[in-house]
Amino acid sequence: xxxxxxxxxxxxxxxxxxxxxxxxxxxxxxxxxxxxxxxxxxxxxxxxxxxxxxxxxxxxxxxxxxxxxxxxxxxxxxxxxxxxxxxxxxxxxxxxxxxxxxxxxxxxxxxxxxxxxxxxxxxxxx
Length: 126
What we know:
Blueprint: H1 4-14, E1 16-18, H2 20-26, E2 32-36, H3 40-46, E3 53-54, H4 60-64, E4 80-84, H5 89-100, E5 106-109, H6 112-118
Parallel strand pairs: 1-5, 2-3, 2-4, 4-5
Helix pairs in contact: 1-5
């Protein structure tokens, strides 16, 4: 059996990782959408990156698929998608999954929301 750490490492080798500093520069880009994958309780407790769309990680494949009623149109908008989670594991897996499903302009925030806050990135309450 492979560990979760191994899966994240493998996913990370196939995706683009964006630093918190790079992400801060992308925040006001109308061609980029930030996607928060954390659980609702994490958002309520810690807030989120301003303007980020929330998608529970467990629903990702369903909101990505344009043939399903769960589809979120942000994923068929042609915009760059930047996934993030608490520290970067879930977002690495999500970016890898999104790429394997055909989403082309996808990356993830290295260090996650924790790294964002350490870089003094702005947050908003949910």
